[in-house]
Design a protein that fits this description.
The structure is a single chain. By secondary structure, the protein is α+β, with helices and mostly antiparallel strands. Helix content is 36%, strand content 38%. Strands 2-3-1-4 form a four-stranded antiparallel β-sheet. The longest helix has 21 residues.
Amino acid sequence: MKQYLVTGYDYTDAGALQRRMNVRPHHLDNLKALKESGNYIVGGAVLNDEGNMIGSVMIMQFETEEELEAWKKNDPYITQKIWESVDIKPYKVAVV
C-alpha cells in the first residue's frame, strides 16, 4: 500500500472549534472503520498555544489513488468544512 502524511488545517472563523467538536465523533467513527480496513495508521490533533485543536495530522495508506480520493470525498472533516485545506504527501513509515 502507498502511505501518505495527511495534514488538515482547520478554518479559523469564530465557530470553527465548536464546529469541529460537533463533527469530531463522526470523524472518529470514520477513522475506526479505516483502522479496521488497514487504511488508518496513526493520527491526532494539532493544538494551538491555548491547547485548542486547530488541525490534524494522520498517516494513512491506500492501495490506489482512487481509494485516497474516495476517502477525501467522504471524510466528515472535509465534507463538514472543518479543514479549510488538506496537504497530502507521499510518506514511508520507518520499520524499526
